[in-house]
Each structure stands twice: as C-alpha cells, then as structure tokens.
Design brief:
This protein is mainly α. 66% of the residues lie in helices and 1% in strands. Strands 1-2 form a two-stranded antiparallel sheet.
Length: 486
C-alpha cells in the first residue's frame, strides 16, 4: 500500500476554508464604503489613512511579527511633530494608525487561525486592578474628558501588550524585535544629530528647555523624553552584541550602542545619564564579563565626554556641561519641588483618595498660580502623579506592580541561565530599573515606550519558561546554549 499525503489546509486561505460571499458579506462591504465616504466628508485625511491601513493590514496579515515590529518602531518614532490631526484632546500621529491596522490584521489572523489573543501574564492582575481604580476615579475626577483621555491611554497599553504577547512567541521573534528596536533608535539618532547639523530639522524653539541651545530634542520631543526614548535599548544593544558569532555584527552592535548613547546624551538630560549608570551597575551584577564590559564602556565614555566637555565639542559638549554644571538643582526647590508640594496638597485634601484621573492642571492654580501659567505644570514623576491622582490605592498598586515585574525578571534570569537569552534577561530589566529610578523626577504612568519594552520582556519570560521546561525534560532547546567567559 502506498501512503499518500493529504493536503494541509491553510487557515488563511479562503478557498480552503470554503468561504463564499453572502448577502451579509456584501452588506458589510457596503457599510465600510459608507463609513469611508462619511469620514472623507468630515476629514479626507482619515479616509486616506484608513485605506492605506487596509492595504498595510493585508500585507502584514501573512507575517504578524513584522506587524509587531512596525508597531514598536512607530511607537519610538512618534512625537508631537509627527501628529497629523487631533480628535478632541487625542492627537493622532504615526503610532495610532499603525497600532489600529496592526490590531486589525492580527485580530483577523487570530480569528481565521483560531488563535486566542488574550492570555494571562504575571503583572496583568495588578494592571487590570489599576485600570479599574482609575475608572472608579471618574466618579470624583475634576474633568471627565481628561479622566477618559488618561484611561484611553491605559487601554492602548493593554492593547499593545495583548498584540506583543499573542504573536511574539519564539526566541527568533524576540531577537527580531530587538533588531527592530535597535535599528529604529539608530535612525532616530541619525535624524536628530545630522538633521540639526544639516539644517533639515530644528525643534529647539518648541521647548523652553532647549530654546537656549545645547539640548537636542530628537524629532521634536522634550529633551528628557528624547533621552528616555533611546535609553531602554542601550544596555541590551551592548549585551546583544556579546552573543553574536560574527565579528562584524558584534562590533557593529558595539558601535550602535555607543552611537545611541551619545545621541541620547545630546539631550543634556541629567536623569538620562543617571539611569544609564544605574542600569549599568545592575547589569554588572550579572556576570564577571558584564562587569568587565561595564568598566570598559565607563572608561571610554568618561574619556570621550571629558574631551567633549573641556573642548565644548558640539551638542555632546553642551549636554555634558548641563549635566555636570547643574547637579545641584535636580532635587532643588524649583519647579519640581513646587509640583511635588501641589501633589501632596491634592493628596491631603482628598484624605489620601486622590483627585482621580486627569484634572491635575485644573487643581494646580490654587497651589501655585505661577506654576499654573507656566509650561512646567505636571507632577514631574510617576510616584508624585499617583500621589495626586490615585492616592494611597494608586501608590500601593504602583509598588505592587514593581514587585511583580521584579519577581518575573528574577524567574526569567533563572530560566535563561546558560543560554543566549541570559544577556537580555539581565539587561532588559536593568533598563527598566534605571527608568524606575528616573521616574521619581520625570514622566507619567502611561509614558511610552516603557510598556512596549515591558511587553517584549514578558514575551521573553514565556519563551524562556517554555524552553526551560523543555530542557528539563531532555527535549531539544530553541534557545542556543551560551556561556559567559572572561
């Protein structure tokens, strides 16, 4: 008897699934066309974006990992200057349509392939509880529209993490996402440094912090946000280089690490410099080789910045001047102290409940009229934002989430020991630790791109756990063995 192989049906092939257009299908097509026509009448740009998105979604449907990579890249590049228009208080830029189209493509693939998009992850219960508390805060918030805007930001974070965790499921895909992140940050650095040098871009006038020169804004971001956008990949780019087998790739990644770091420092961000040092010290705890590389990078960086500082070389010299000459004002009773005092006032006047989501600016005037009419009117720190907005419950949930993420990271390090993934298991939470320390003086809870970075690390946790269980049973491992050696 001769065995014949039965044809395998592709779940994404309409003919294989027996799909036939029905009257309901054509009614749906007509409905979509009417929606596009209505949006075109309202604002032609929305219709153009949707049509382009349908085309993009169709292309990305066959390769969801590329969809996730495009989503991560657009998240990093998106700034206020790349916003096309606004819907109420919500600005629509590069990231929002890419996220929407990626979600459509991935959801459609999940339906056709009978794949669930929702899965539990370690920090999910705390995050959902946090969203629930913010929703409850709408009953006592100062302005409902501001509160809803904050909650929509939290829901976007939930959506991006659902996409990342649903479709980044292998070590090869995680490596691809790291490459996406590195390439995007190098592109941002090139556009920032050479764009200004060649006179192609100049966003200094948009931010008072950089109006006097000496502080790079990237693609139009506030300098501290520009530094934060590049900060996450610095440690992992260097760590990723250590596992590369080809020397040219290894040294290219080393050069990319230095370039991204120097581009970041053109922002003149004190917090950015400290976060890199804090994260580097945590990475150095991992292995002797990490410590040697950390000392080497620190020595080279110190020498380079010393030359740039003393000879005032370009934006790097100006940025270092600001970092070293203004150490005394980072925690001084300046705009940060005034905002923190206002946060404590909002906390105490609500008996620890908080003012609810949004509404910080509306409540600020009675604490400082000057601050209310300035450009510095936000809490200046995630912790202080929770003090003002969500009170005791928000603070408890914030530190519970930090503890949960730390425990997940410790497990991931254990799962990856002796494999290539060990370098990322150490370096990725090191960047998050540096960001957490920095977050006491800057940023908001829902700030990008921390949550995408956390989502990617959570995907690494699942991959590492599955691979560890396979190795424990003596099955082949998908993550190559690797040993850190001096």
């Amino acid at each position: 008897m001769i065995a014949t192989a039965l044809p395998v049906k592709d779940p994404l092939d309409a003919t294989a699934t027996g799909f036939r257009p029905t009257p309901l299908f054509w009614a749906g097509v007509l409905f979509v066309q009417l929606v596009l026509l209505s949006l075109f009448i309202y604002d032609w740009r929305i219709s153009v974006l949707l049509v382009a998105g349908i085309v993009i979604a169709t292309v990305l449907l066959d390769n969801p990992a590329w969809a996730v990579g495009c989503m991560l890249g657009s998240r990093l590049i998106s700034t206020s200057t790349t916003s096309f228009f606004s819907i109420g208080k919500i600005t629509i830029g590069l990231f929002e349509p890419v996220l929407l189209f990626s979600l459509v493509a991935l959801a459609l693939r999940a339906v056709l392939a009978q794949k669930t998009l929702f899965r539990a992850w370690p920090w999910q219960p705390v995050y959902l509880t946090y969203i629930s508390w913010c929703v409850a805060g709408l009953f006592w918030c100062t302005k409902m529209s501001d509160g809803i805007k904050d909650i929509l930001g939290l829901l976007v974070i939930l959506a991006t993490n659902l996409v990342i965790l649903a479709f980044i499921e292998t070590w090869a895909q995680i490596r691809a996402m790291v490459w996406f992140w590195i390439a995007t940050c190098v592109l941002i650095g090139i556009l920032a440094i050479f764009g200004d040098s060649l006179g192609l871009t100049n966003y200094g006038a948009q931010w008072k912090a950089s109006a006097g020169g000496g502080r790079e804004t990237g693609l139009g971001q506030q300098p501290n946000w520009f530094a934060m956008n590049l900060m996450f990949i610095v440690h992992s780019c260097a760590a990723f280089a250590l596992v590369q087998k080809r020397a040219i790739i290894r040294w290219s990644l080393m050069f990319a690490t230095i370039f991204i770091f120097f581009a970041m420092m053109t922002s003149g961000s004190r917090g950015g410099a400290y976060s890199i040092v804090i994260g580097g010290m945590i990475v150095a705890l991992g292995q002797p080789l990490f410590r040697r590389w950390f000392i080497g990078f620190a020595s080279v960086g110190f020498a380079f910045f010393a030359i740039a500082y003393f000879f005032d070389i370009g934006d790097i010299g100006k940025g270092m001047n600001r970092i070293t000459m203004n150490l005394d004002v980072l925690f001084a009773q300046d705009i940060r102290g005034l905002n923190w005092a206002a946060c404590m006032g909002m906390f105490s006047e609500t008996w620890g409940r908080g003012i609810g989501p949004g509404g910080y600016i509306d409540n600020l005037q009675k604490y400082s009229d000057w601050l209310y009419h300035s450009v510095y009117r936000y809490p200046h720190g995630i912790f202080w934002g929770e003090v003002a907005h969500n009170g005791v419950i928000g603070i408890i949930l914030l530190f519970t989430m930090v503890f949960t993420i730390g425990r997940m990271a410790w497990k991931t390090i254990g799962y990856t020991r002796g494999t290539e993934a060990e370098v990322l298991a150490w370096s990725m939470p090191a960047s998050m630790a540096g960001y957490f320390a920095w977050s006491f003086v800057e940023f908001n809870f829902y700030e990008k791109p921390f949550w995408e970075w956390l989502g990617l690390y959570t995907a690494l946790y699942f991959v590492a756990k599955r691979d560890f269980e396979k190795r424990s049973r003596g099955e082949p491992s998908e993550i190559p063995d690797w040993k850190l050696e001096l």
